[in-house]
Specification:
This protein is α+β, with helices and mostly antiparallel strands. It has 2 domains: 38 residues; 179 residues, endopeptidase domain like (from Nostoc punctiforme) (endopeptidase fold (from Nostoc punctiforme)), CATH 3.90.1720.10. It is built from 7 helices and 8 strands; from the N terminus they run H-E-H-E-E-E-H-E-H-H-E-H-E-H-E. Strand 2 and strand 3 form a beta hairpin. Helix 4 packs across helix 5. It starts with 7 loop residues before the first helix and ends with a strand.
């Protein structure tokens, strides 16, 4: 069975295929694995990432809108949990569910992410925090970013679970009208099916990350 081509054109094609394969392995396996092994997870860690701007996960226009409106690189977040001695991120993306930590890292832009951890005086709430996440499992994603419980978006999931556990807010709610919404008015109107709700209070990933109860414990250059 012939493995290596003999013709010049065949050798060039084969070389290009090897380069593509090597690049794919580097991007999707080796680099994410390096960061996966570098991070030392703890239950209750809150992880933030920039989602890849692709039509697959999630809708590209929403990623651009979230990052643009908040003027931040954070477009997604979730909570680190441990299930059967394996690490996962409980997140709201399409719906609320667990995603393996490695898969979650791979999905981020450049496999980059930041990790925030509850300060020592709040760590007693972690068991209740993790338990409170269960209430929202399976809820569909909220493309309107409302603060009701029927549909849930990523930072809302974290915010509400901590609120139920500690009876205090994690981060500051902000009004859409106070953010950089104007350049994304077309996208907002599309999902809202009407006028931009400028008085709507939301919790964005970046405003969640600024909560005084949190401290950054890991970053790989996001």
């Amino acid at each position: 069975m012939k493995i290596f081509p003999k013709s010049k054109a065949g050798k060039i094609t084969f070389g290009v295929l090897l380069l593509v394969l090597a690049a794919a392995l580097l991007k999707f396996i080796f680099i994410p694995m390096y960061w996966y092994l570098s991070y030392r997870p703890q239950e209750g860690d809150i992880v933030f990432q920039s989602l890849v701007k692709t039509k697959l996960l999630p809708k590209t226009e929403l990623v651009r809108m979230i990052e643009g409106i908040t003027e931040s690189c954070y477009s997604h977040c979730g909570v680190v949990v441990k299930r059967d001695d394996k690490w996962y991120v409980n997140e709201a993306i399409f719906d609320v569910h667990d995603t393996s930590l490695f898969t979650w890292i791979v999905r981020g832009r450049g496999a980059k992410f930041d990790v925030y951890r509850l300060k020592e005086e709040y760590r007693e709430y972690i068991p209740e925090f993790i338990d409170a996440l269960k209430e929202f499992q399976g809820r569909p994603y909220d493309y309107k970013y409302e603060m009701d419980d029927e549909y849930i978006y990523c930072s809302e999931l974290v915010y509400k679970a901590f609120q139920r556990a500690a009876n205090e807010n994690l981060g500051q709610l902000v009004k859409l009208g106070d953010l950089n919404w104007k350049p994304y008015e077309k996208t907002i109107r599309k999902y809202e099916q009407g006028e931009p709700p400028l008085e709507r209070a939301i919790i964005t990933p970046v405003h969640l990350s600024r909560a005084p109860q949190l401290k950054k414990v890991f970053s790989n250059g996001i």
